[in-house]
Design brief:
This protein is an alpha/beta fold and 232 residues long. 36% of the residues lie in helices and 11% in strands. The protein has helices spanning 16-27, 45-56, 89-92, 104-119, 141-153, 156-159, 176-185, 210-222, and strands spanning 7-11, 31-38, 61-66, 123-125, 166-168. The protein has a 5-stranded parallel β-sheet with strand order 3-2-1-4-5, sandwiched between helices. Helix 2 links the parallel strand 2 (31-38) and strand 3. Helix 7 packs across helix 8.
Length: 232
């Protein structure tokens, strides 16, 4: 029997937030096509995490697309720059950090849009967050709204009015603890996810970068045991 659910493309990094977004798409009744971008990130352990999460949450398809953003650099995640460590919450809120990857979410959403159009899907999910987001400009609601408008202007499907593209960012206004609680209620196994920007060769999280700080604080605030394997 054919699957009658509507298709949705879900950007899946392998991190805590994107895993939760995939679970929300499942809750919302979509047939989930997960898209992971191998962009030359130094924390490539997240690619394996994405495969684990896609399997655990029942994605009908999972594609890993290589797009090496190291060609441009400009970020501690794609160039030979130090990942900031041991920063306070105040320091993290003070500006855009060097772990920002230029135009990353714009590029990723463009790829998700291309796949969605070929699937005749009008729904794209991603796990951006505007509260615990380390200052990234492409994690804000204004950006999501602007890209959604672009999607409907710049595609054949949009111009021919065969459907209305919607970019779903269900976590955008949630604190990390609320995201964790939501994910647990939807069956996410967070031990399968990876968040650290500078993991050890064996994949253990550093415990000191901004992403580790936000993850640890989120589990503590949610009152949930953190399943992450940290170096320190």
């Amino acid at each position: 029997m054919a699957d009658q659910r509507r298709p949705a493309v879900v950007l899946l990094s392998g991190g805590l937030d994107s895993a939760t977004a995939l679970a929300v798409a499942r809750r919302d009744g979509f047939r989930r096509h997960a898209l992971t971008i191998a962009y030359g990130q130094r924390h490539a352990a997240e690619l394996e995490a994405a495969r684990r999460v896609a399997a655990q949450l029942g994605a009908i398809e999972h594609r890993v697309v290589p797009l090496d953003l190291r060609a441009f650099g400009g970020s501690a995640l794609t160039a030979d720059l130090d990942v900031p460590k041991d920063r306070s919450a105040e320091a993290m809120a003070a500006g855009i950090p060097v772990t920002y990857v230029p135009a990353r979410n714009t590029v990723f959403l463009a790829l998700a849009l291309a796949w969605a159009e070929t699937l005749e899907s009008y729904d794209i999910y991603l796990g951006v967050n505007a509260i615990d987001y380390s200052g990234y400009p492409d994690c804000r609601p204004e950006f999501i709204a602007a890209f959604e408008q672009l999607a409907n202007l710049a595609t054949k499907a949009g111009v021919e009015r065969r459907g209305q593209f919607q970019v779903h960012a269900p976590l955008v206004h949630l604190a990390k603890a609320d995201i964790i609680r939501l994910g647990i209620s939807l069956g996410v196994d967070y031990s399968l996810t990876h968040s650290c920007y500078d993991p050890a060769p064996d994949g253990a999280a550093c415990g000191r970068c901004d992403s580790c700080f936000l993850r640890r604080a989120g589990f503590a605030a949610a009152g949930v045991s953190d399943p992450t394997r940290y170096n320190q």
